[in-house]
Amino acid sequence: MDNKKLIIISSSVIGVIVLLLIVLWLISIFGGKKLSYEQVEEKIVASAEKYYKDNPTMLPTADGDYTLSYQTLVDNNYIKPLSELLKDGANCSAKVTVNAQNSAYSYIVFLNCPGKYETKELKNIITGSVVTSGDGLYNDNGTYYYKGENVNNYIIIGMSGNEKKEKSVTGRIMSVENDGTIKVRLDTKTENTYVWDDRYNETKVSNDGYNIFEKSRLKDTLKLLETENKDLSDTLLLSSKVKSKLVSKNLCIGIRKETDTTKDGSTECSVLSKDTYLFSLMTPYEYMRASMDENCKILSDLSCSNYNYLSSSNQGSEWLLTATDQNNYKSYSFTGTSLILSKASTFKRLRFIVSLNKHTFYKSGTGTSTDPYIIK
User: Fold this and answer.
1) What is the enclosing helix (H) or strand (E) of 146?
2) Burial of 115 (0-12, 13-18, 19+ CB in 10 A)
3) pLDDT tens track for 197-239
4) What is the DSSP track for 11-26?
5) Vertex 200, ends 197 and 203: CA angle to 5°?
6) Nearest-CA neighbor of 186 among 225, 137, 228, 128?
7) In whole angstroms, what separates CA 198 from the centre of its chain?
8) I want to staple 360 with a disulfide (CB 3.0 to 4.6 A). Which of 87, 231, 308, 356 is the partner?
9) How far apart are CA 308 and CA 151, in angstroms?
């Protein structure tokens, strides 16, 4: 090979190398910001968690929502400015809401890039499809609830983030309440059985218990199961990640007549618990209003199980939250297809209803059994 050809080949190789270097340089300047919007949201959450881990005295001490400035994270070198994380970051804004509930903390990120991307709240996704007839989501003066047999209200809680370390749970969305919280009835029951109450009843002259919630064993049980006790398997039903998505609420503990025809909660919610609880149980009106059958008029009507997503013939009995006014020792229970009265001293399992934070953000899913809602 002569010198002329060698020079040409060498020049070509050098030219290609130079070109590649120029391309890489241009990519590093103009096209290197490859994080997706969801990746940025996850990065912000991780940064907020690290910030509070390093500064534990800054954590909120009372339940509620608190704001952590994104700029605070930037100034303390926990994260880069949005302009360095996103291609259109210069036009984006972000805020972090820290929600404290029962000494558990969740970090809620709202990312807004006008015209490009906006973090979506689950409640807005759900309430975007309201019906006035047939199966689906109904609007009752600002409270949204599912009604019918085939409704797309399946949800998984706890899948986002480190899925291997945190146990997710499945359930059915029952309603979006006036305050924006989302009620979810979990699929799993407690492993153990519990009494509604088993105290000595003077009227019955036996340990049939009293059906007064504020003095009941059930009240104590619901509080106990909020804690994490390795000696009690049911207290570990929900992981810390799942619990961080939930809020404690006052419970509807009003008593109900068997002949009561209301389905709007006006009876059960006429009396609220003194304390707030992380876990609740179903009430008669929630079961009755979910049925499409017009013959479901009082809670003893077996037709209430028709066209009702809450109805299931292959489940055991569970306690409801509601007591009767017929006597002082019986409360309502649910067999899966009917509501019946049971002695408060009877042992039954519990199926929790939990309330998702009003700021719960949507990740994916359409609510079907094969494509359930997944939250961030």
Assistant:
1) strand 143-147
2) exposed
3) 999 999 999 999 999 999 999 999 999 999 888 888 898 888 8
4) HHHHHHHHHHHHHHHH
5) 105
6) 225
7) 32
8) 356
9) 9
pLDDT tens-digit profile of 260-306?
Answer: 999 999 999 999 999 999 999 999 999 999 999 999 999 999 999 99
Q: Are 373 and 155 in contact (CB under 8 A)?
A: yes
Cβ–Cβ < 8 Å for 295, 151: no
Instruction: Give residue for tokens 């910001």.
Output: 33
CA distance 80 to 73: 8
Cα dihedral 306, 180, 138, 283 in deg (nearest 10) = 30
Residues 133-145 as b/e (b if ≥16 CB within 10 A, e otherwise) read eeebbbeeeeebb
Task: Decide: residue 183, CB within 10 A, 0-12 exposed, 13-18 middle, 19+ buried.
Answer: buried
**pTM of the shown model:** 0.83
For the CA atoms of 303, 305, 306, 307, the dihedral, rounded to the nearest 10 degrees, stands at: 140
Helix (H, G, I), strand (E, B) or coil at 57: helix
H or E element at residue 110: strand 104-113
* Nearest alpha-carbon partner for 92 in 50, 30, 35, 47: 35
